[in-house]
Amino acid sequence: MTPVSSRTSDDLWPPLPYAEWKDTLHAIHMWTQVVGKIRLALTPLMNHWWNSTLYVTPRGLTTSLIPNGSDAFQIDLDFVEHLLVIETSGGGRSSIALGSMSVAAFYRQVLETLAGLGVPDPRITPVPTEVAEAVPFLEDTAVRPYDREQVRRLHAVLIGTQLVFDHFRADFLGKASPVQFFWGGFDLASARFSGRRAPPYTGGSAPNVHIHVMHEAYSHELIAAGFWPGRDDLPQPEFYSYAIPAPPGLADATIRPASARWDNARGEFILPYDAVRTEDDPAAAVLAFLQSTYDVAADLGRWDRPLLEERVACDCDPSIVHGNGSPR
């Protein structure tokens, strides 16, 4: 595997201490829930809820294309100019300044802006999911801070993580998810699939989530990994990796880097973000975590790794491809 070129400066892997920005994090989390629920409400169900997720961009997060009858629109959270931008296929464009405000005010502004662009009320369920205290959006009237520097740091971490995860995903030939942002848990994640159905899901569920969501998410065997910035009961940013179902012996496996470990209470491997950012090569440390946790889970789970990972040889002239392996 070709190493990911990486920078070790604070510009790419900056400090992200949970306690210093948790109020800003809460605000952005609720904003992404509003935006994500709009995408979920208006798009056809894709396996494992992939139609609901957001995607990292050079400027922040996006819904990508959302249908609106015979037209379409897109919602972007721009963390460079600190705007929420809505654009339509008919040429319409409106924006909302991101700053200190309540969730209720944000929710109302989004619906009003959509209506002004000719997008009907998407009729989302206006209550957050996967959070312990699910305050309905219109009842969440406390003004939340918006720290632009902390938002810039989050965006840098999401970009760095996306680049490493994209590189890791490229080596897998089986079914794999996009690298996508799940607004429920506020994590950036990707999953690989064995090609086999999983046993009926009998594990726990995140707070304020219907069990059917979990059944759909974990209908097939997978090994997933991701990054999240933490929450009150787990107040540190981390990378994580887990398998569904977890094969026997997974908890005792040896993984890399040395700062990674198995968390028995959560049933997954974790790698503290603060340990990553102090590595000589943070991107290489994340890649080692992804590869080593996948290796042990796939081997213990008896995945057909040659089928899923080995490219078919051909008699092609190698001069027809670029150095990055892409056809001209």
Keywords:
six-stranded antiparallel β-sheet; alpha+beta
Structural account:
With 328 residues, the chain is an alpha+beta fold. The chain is 30% helix and 20% strand. The chain contains seven helices and twelve strands. The strands form two sheets. Strands 1, 2, 3, 4, 5 and 6 form a six-stranded antiparallel β-sheet that branches. The protein starts with 17 loop residues before the first helix and ends in a 19-residue tail after the last helix. The model has no long low-confidence stretch (mean pLDDT 94).
What's a concise summary of this model?
The chain is an alpha+beta fold and 328 residues long. Helices cover 30% and strands 20% of the residues.
Task: Please write out the topology.
Layout: H1 18-42, E1 55-57, E2 60-62, E3 66-68, E4 71-78, E5 83-88, E6 93-97, H2 103-116, H3 148-169, E7 180-182, E8 187-197, H4 211-217, E9 220-228, E10 238-244, E11 261-263, E12 268-272, H5 273-277, H6 282-300, H7 305-309
Helix pairs in contact: 1-2, 3-6
Please, how many helices? 7
Poorly predicted runs of 5 or more residues:
none
What is the makeup of the main sheet?
Answer: 6 strands, antiparallel
Could you say which overall geometry the principal axes of the C-alpha atoms support?
A: globular
- Could you tell me the mean pLDDT? 94
The oligomeric status of these chains comes to single chain
* C-alpha-based Rg, rounded: 20 Å
SSE string, helix = H, strand = E? Answer: HEEEEEEHHEEHEEEEHHH
Task: Decide which structural class fits the backbone.
Answer: alpha+beta
Distance between the termini: 22 Å
The percent range for strand residues is 15-25%
Beta strand count: 12
Q: Helix amount, in percent?
A: 25-40%
